Amino acid sequence: MAPKLLITGATGLLGSHLLRASQEWWHPVGTYHRTTRRQALSFFGKIDHGRIDLGDYSETKAMVADVQPAAVIHTAAITDLDYCERYPDESLRINLNAATDLAALCGDKDIPFLFTSADLVFDGAGAPYAEDDPPTPINVFGEHRALAEEGIIAAYEDAVIARLPLLIGYGSPGRESFYYKLVSSFRRGQEVTLFGDAIRSPVSAAVAAQGLLKIAGSGFEDDVNIAETERVVGRIHLGGRDQISLFELGQLTLRILGLQEQLAVPVSVLDSYAGLLQTTFLAARSANVTLDSSRAYELGYDPPPLPSQLEELLPPAWRVQADVLEDDESDPEAAELDEGT
Ligand SMILES: NC(=O)c1ccc[n+]([C@@H]2O[C@H](COP(=O)([O-])OP(=O)(O)OC[C@H]3O[C@@H](n4cnc5c(N)ncnc54)[C@H](OP(=O)(O)O)[C@@H]3O)[C@@H](O)[C@H]2O)c1
Questions:
Q1: Which residue owns the Cα nearest ligand 1 atom 26?
Q2: Contact residues of ligand 1, CB 6 A cut-off
Q3: Over the stretch 172-219, which tens digit does the pLDDT of each residue have?
């Protein structure tokens, strides 16, 4: 029987891709929190799952004892930067305390524990960032991710801290990811303002999931049948090979969709500090947080070029011929989007 892989946050953008991709080798068990039981039943189908508030230590401990996982990938988090800024205690409870508690429980059993941290632990002034660059967070979300990294390594030195870049993709039904909102706005002919100086090294959620599964399977042999390598531990970056601003990401998306590139409107992260944007961002936004991911590349993580990842996400049926657009007028109300995490 396949070993059990506990995936927290399995209804999220990353967790839902992990859940799908892991089934080839693992027996996945997913957790969720606010998703209703009815939604969960239709989303998980026959896959084992459970509702839990990971901020409650006794619930978490009981779940680990019950599931008895062979490995854990912890993706559950509060990922809305402005929400974390507004409710720092809630961010602390989930983004910091829940993560260190779960790491300690995995440490007691010496099972692989992968924490999904973010490029946003950095301020954007020293890119590209290597694994041993010290975190320099500039908002509550980044601060709690950085403190969680420290707390996890203190609790369990063989834990994995996988820092992820901006993830492109669509979450489970009803959840609107950054890219979903971007593509939907463009397809409605709506202009979108995007940071031209927020540089990222994005990958699709599907590619990131494959990278995480490769690490989770490292050290296992016949059981998981993924890797005969030594178990990967410590900090590791899972960035893509392309460095691109959010504005350029918008332009690239428009080119693939066959839409007018003017629908992407560049603004600066500095404008968000100066209050020049329509939207008020509570949390400071980082400029260039591209990740140096050479450690992961050497271990076999091999993200395809970004354009081909986007092509996979933008089905031919969504692409428009130039003549269809001739009479199209863009929506004068521009949407403002940034990536969240
Ligand atoms: N998305 C990105 O671009 C990005 C970039 C860098 C790093 N990351 C990291 O990747 C991880 C996953 O991000 P994501 O974008 O996939 O997140 P997401 O779509 O916002 O999903 C978050 C998940 O966490 C669950 N959750 C929230 N609060 C919980 C609680 N109190 N107890 C248990 N579960 C709870 C949610 O369950 P319910 O929905 O049922 O409440 C959901 O399944 C995070 O650690 C994030 O820092 C993401």
A1: 76
A2: 9-15, 31-35, 52-55, 75-79, 94, 116, 118, 164, 166-167, 171, 339, 341
A3: 877 889 999 999 999 999 999 999 999 999 999 999 999 999 999 887
Please give the number of the atom of ligand 1 that sits closest to the Cα of 202.
3
Distance 80 CA to ligand 1 centre (A): 9
Ligand 1 closest atom vs CA 141:
47
Element (H, E) at 134: none
CB of 211 closer than 8 Å to CB of 170 = no
Sign of CA dihedral 37, 40, 45, 49: negative
Q: Which of 89-93, 145-149, 230-234 has the lowest mean pLDDT?
A: 230-234
Q: Please state the CATH superfamily assignment of the domain spanning residues 4-169+202-237 in this structure.
A: NAD(P)-binding Rossmann-like Domain (3.40.50.720)
When the candidates are 3.40.50.1980, 3.90.1150.10, 3.90.25.10, 1.10.3720.10, the CATH number that belongs to 178-200+242-289+305-336 is: 3.90.25.10
- In this predicted structure, what is the pLDDT of residue 331? 47
Domain boundaries, the chain: 4-169+202-237, 178-200+242-289+305-336
- pLDDT tens, residue by residue, 315-334: 999 998 655 544 444 444 55
The total of other beta-carbon atoms located within 10 Å of residue 13's CB is: 26
**Spatial separation of the C-alpha atoms in residues 72 and 75, rounded to whole Å:** 9
Would the pTM count as exceeding 0.90?
yes
CA distance 233 to 216: 10
> Mean pLDDT for the chain?
91
CA–centroid distance, 10 to ligand 1, in Å, is 8
DSSP H or E run through 295: helix 294-298
Higher pLDDT, 330 or 254: 254
pLDDT at residue 309 greater than cutoff 70: yes
